[in-house]
Amino acid sequence: SNMSKRKLKVAEELSKRKKGVSGEDDSVSAKGSSSSSAPVNSTKILIMSMRGITSRERHLMSDFRVLLPHCKKEAKLDPKQGLIVLNEIAELRGCSYCMYFESRGKPGGSTEELYMWLAGTPNGPSVRFHVSNLHTMDELKMTGNCLRGARAFLSFDPAFGKAPHTRLIQEMLSQALGVPKGCLKSKPFVDHTISFHILDGKIWVRVYQIAITDDGKNDPVVQLVEMGPRLVLEPVRIHGGSFGGPVLYENGDFLSAHQKILDKKDDAASEYLNKIKDHRRQEQKRKDMVVPETSLDLLFKTRK
């Protein structure tokens, strides 16, 4: 009798446990179905650079890491490994975009310049920008400020919709730099904006704080206070793949610093050659202007 009572109690406990587990599974499945129905942006961006960049370029990279709470950072890449390795690193870190800074030319020299890659990993596309007019937050020391981890508005110039390559760049920037909702390191509000404007074929990037002040009449006034960094991006080339592939767009007006120096040397050499040609032409002209002697010239010559 005692054994039968114990068996009944054990059976009742097992049945209760089974019911509890099934109820939890139902609730979990319901939550999963509700979450899967709503679109979720889980974009993450990997920000890293090559070895040999300057301190200013390193500070620019750290400024981007502060403004983008959904970014991942990695150690510097050896240029000998090639850019294809970035796809594997981004896949290991779970990132769908990669922002890579590479420096060209001798540091501190006239040929030093900075390039920035923005690529969708692992299938592309990818854009290579030339970075100029660079000023970091530490250099500017603006009065604007934002909370660390806050999300940002992305403001684009209407000129982005006029050309196919600018529309593609706008879409890539909005996907890569837009902080996804519900990111673990982000705050649930917006207090700054990142603006992109096109002028002379270049993209001017500015960052502003959204400051709300009172005008004394109990009416809030929204002001934009610049906080930095500042930079200008010039699209050099757009590839169909990630860090390579077919060329979709190429800027024919872009000249690198090295190419500008070569052009100056060619101009100086051509100027020197033109001077030599002019000197020889003048000498030949003087020779041609000399009148040859005739028999009449001998009549006027006197003997000494």
Explain what the structure shows.
The protein is of the alpha+beta class. The protein has seven helices and eleven strands. It has helices at residues 2-37, 55-67, 85-92, 137-140, 164-177, 257-289, 296-299; strands at residues 45-49, 71-73, 97-104, 113-120, 126-135, 151-156, 190-199, 202-214, 220-226, 230-241, 244-250. Strands 1, 2, 3, 4, 5, 6, 7, 8, 9, 10 and 11 form an eleven-stranded mixed beta sheet that branches. Strand 6 (151-156), helix 5 (164-177) and strand 7 form a beta-alpha-beta unit. The chain starts with a helix and ends in a 5-residue tail after the last helix.
Overall 3D geometry? elongated
Provide mean pLDDT, rounded: 82
Q: Quick one: how many beta strands? A: 11
Task: Report Rg.
Answer: 34 Å
Beta fraction: 25-35%
What structural class is derived from the secondary structure elements? Answer: alpha+beta
What's this, in brief?
This protein is α+β, with helices and mostly antiparallel strands. The protein has seven helices and eleven strands. The model is unreliable at 18-40 (pLDDT under 50).
Q: How would you summarize the topology of this molecule?
A:
Elements: H1 2-37, E1 45-49, H2 55-67, E2 71-73, H3 85-92, E3 97-104, E4 113-120, E5 126-135, H4 137-140, E6 151-156, H5 164-177, E7 190-199, E8 202-214, E9 220-226, E10 230-241, E11 244-250, H6 257-289, H7 296-299
Parallel strand pairs: 1-2, 1-3, 6-7
Antiparallel strand pairs: 3-4, 4-5, 5-10, 7-8, 8-9, 8-10, 10-11
